[in-house]
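cache lookup: miss for this entity combination. No prior model stored, computing from scratch. Input as submitted by user K.M.:
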Amino acid sequence: MGRLAKTWLGVGYAFLYLPIFTLVIFSFNESRMPTVWTGLSLRWYSAIANDSEIVSAVLVSLKIALASASTAIVLGTLAAFSISRYRRFSGRTAFIAHINAPLVVPEVITGLSLLLFFVAVENLFGGVSLRGMLAIWIGHTTICTAYATVVIQARLSEVDRSVEEAAMDLGCRPFQVFYLIILPSISQALASAWLLTFTISLDDVVSTSFLSAPGSTTLPVLIFSRARLGLDPTVNAVATITVVLVGIGVTVASLLLVRQERRRAAAQAAAYREATLAAAAH
Amino acid sequence: MNTPASCSLPEAPVPGAEAAAGPLARLMAFLRARRWGRKSVIGIPYVFLVLFFSLPFLVVLKISVSEADGVQFKDIFEFSDGTLLMRLHLSNYQFLATDPLYLRTYAWSVCYAAINTVICLFIGYPFAYFMTKARPSLRPILVMLVSLPFWTSYLLRIYAWKGLLDDHGVINNLLVWLQLVDEPLKMMYTPYSMMIGMVYTYLPFMILPLYGTLVKADPRLLEAAGDLGTTPWKAFWLVTVPLSKAGIIAGSMLVFIPSVGEYVIPELLGGPQTLMIARVLWDEYFQNVDWPMASAVAVTMIGLILVPLVFFNRYQSGVQGAGADDEPHAAGGAA
Amino acid sequence: MAAMTPAAAGAATPAAAAPAAYDDSAFLRVDRLTKRFGEVAAVDEVSIAIRKGEIFALLGSSGCGKSTLLRMLAGFETPSSGGIYLEGQEISRLRPFERPINMMFQSYALFPHLTVWENVAFGLKRHKQPRERIEAQVERMLNLVQLKPYAQRKPHQLSGGQQQRVALARSLALEPRLLLLDEPLGALDRKLRAQTQFELSSIIKSVGVTCVLVTHDQEEAMTMADRMAVMSHGSFVQVGAPREIYETPANRFVADFIGTVNLFEGVLVEDESDHCVIETPAWRFYVGHGITGVMGQKLSVALRPEKVELSTQPPPRTDVNCLHGRVVEGAYFGASSLYRVALGDGNRLQVSVPNSERHGEVIKVGTEVYATFSADALVVLVS
């Protein structure tokens, strides 16, 4: 690889990681001013533990993310199935447009429209406030379903149709085909779709702001409000924890994938060698 | 050795035997005949999205043409003297169409998004290209390193740039400490700080699709070009770049379309000069509590991105439609 | 066989158009089966009666409808009209999992997340067979295809030939009344194909299951099938034993489709009970049987390349059943040689000569040759 290539990549990666790096460094800073280094300290980490706002926000975020991701992959699987298996049905183009729209429409619009919709429903059915965790969950699910569908549909379209036919030929009813044959084939796509939507939900700040109510503040909303006011070292500490967790998660996942791929390739090579040896022996 | 079929296994089910079975089986047969299995598979996500995506947008549309923030459609329609009147309060739209500040904001939103796309392309294309030149064993690590920031909260990373670019931020402190400048540089709350944040956030979205396309390129095509007398530089422009068109389009769309409606980055890193339409919408709702106005802004925003939206949708359909069978799979396949 | 009048085969419409005679003893009966996709009929009024234990091949090029017909038998397509009767029972409206029919797919379609053992046991489990029965049957099937040591492997750990055997074992595990094979040898390379052909037929014969197979490969159809049907544009052009189809093609299409053939257009000049004579502008063909035709009728004569003898010396009689020309091409295939002879009238004659001697005569390009054949070797084609 040429020197230009190495420099370009080096600078690029440095650019990508510099902010993360400074975040982490300054989370261990003694001073309240997060950009002036006065000494090493863990005080901001203990501050998090005692900060009830942060703790409850984390719990709210996790709950909502769990619910949104799980709902999204159910809806996403149904949608992906519809798109890849049912070639003709009336309104198919509109259906696909609906599925893809949340990917394209800015979140401020999604958030605003959902909020106004809930207000309308509240007025219609007399005053029960729908805002809060329920509304946030619905908003996140709407957005996440779009992402989940893309991931699952990509994998679903690769699945060999004749395997499904073989299952039916051997006595499987259509629903059995789904959970005995299709589901295992797309399990990896389902897992990555779940992780993706979990992350998106956990991260979401714009539509959540529109839809939240007192008692349902999520972590990003909390951080956003603090960040607007100024620089806050507790945010650095939260960031560091997130980065470490994510870093470990992504590394582990990548290693697992690589190892699985290597094992599969080795198995195939072994089978091929055996077959050629057997043929030669005949 | 093998006993004939009739002795060993139960007989094939006689057609009509199903109807004689219990009520549950009959219900299932009834549902299957009406294709309810298929209808619910399509229906459940469809209903969910219509209910929580399309319907809300209709509500927004309605509010944008109302006076107050009431949601009743009775406000628009009036029936008197045997005539049905439709009253649309279009003053919000008039204002948006004529007020120079709003017009400039729309224009700048598209401009910033376009600039962001172009910068990401110029930085990202060589980046992705050089990634493909790396050793095959190294490439998965490179890809992982590009996508890792994506998995960490982007809010936190934008906040990090605040720390870097602030008047008393890391960069300024470093410059002052090194005595390269006398006073801290004013970097925050300018279009430049916002652009840095935008490029930083969207760069992976440009790199990954480009890498995906470039890595699949057949090296033999370049060999053939060389064999026919093309210099490597020309071969790059005549062969590599055109073949990576799909990646360029995908990356550009992934960057441009969300950039137009970006809120967080302009809010945290941009200043009063940086006019982005999403901020306008936010302020109309949260600060002015002017629901009709916010709704009108929303509707016009949709209008702004409608063209790339339609293009993207058709592209997605093409991608999702590819891999289809030509023959319809009738009886056996449908639920 | 020579006594059979080709007139009936050539002059009459293909056997398939008329509904099959109501034959109760037919194991599988297909009655005017049609499948339309829009305007086009992929399968057009096909009727056939297949005997129990028979291996029946559907042969045709792509698009002829053979795969659609097979899929209708399996249940993956519903017929537009017509019926399918298995042992007298109408099954065309049954779903695939309700039919006592199993299919071996071209791509094998093994379940990638299950082991070989689980793949073969799959059907038995779906039919809720007792555990001991499943174990016994799977063991028997794996022994049948000689894959017992590989029972715990997953499909991606097997070679192509092994995967095919798993697919076969899986489709036989339920002891179906009818076995369907979709291009069974299509995915294998040449060398493996010949060996697998015999293995496959012997396994199917030993199990005794009735079998319908679909292929575009003539060799596959002819070596494996007891009877075969040549299909084109959705209908059967000719049905019969492989030998019958090769030696007594019903029309030009079949003659040309199966193997290579030399065709001559001519006119009927003589027609008796024991012979007939057809004349082309340059040659005179004496056929060893009579046809009921009309004097002056336009006909074709078909002559297979391997039935021709080449010689540089003129035969005793050169006016009848003797063609004369110059060798323009000679290709050596090892077991035989193929020569192309440019005849006096502009036609090309293809001749296949077995290389029965190691240092036998090689006819060089440019040599003048005489091609002779017996009266029995000719087939008269009306259509």
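stored under new cache key. Residues 1-21 of chain C have pLDDT under 50 and may be disordered.
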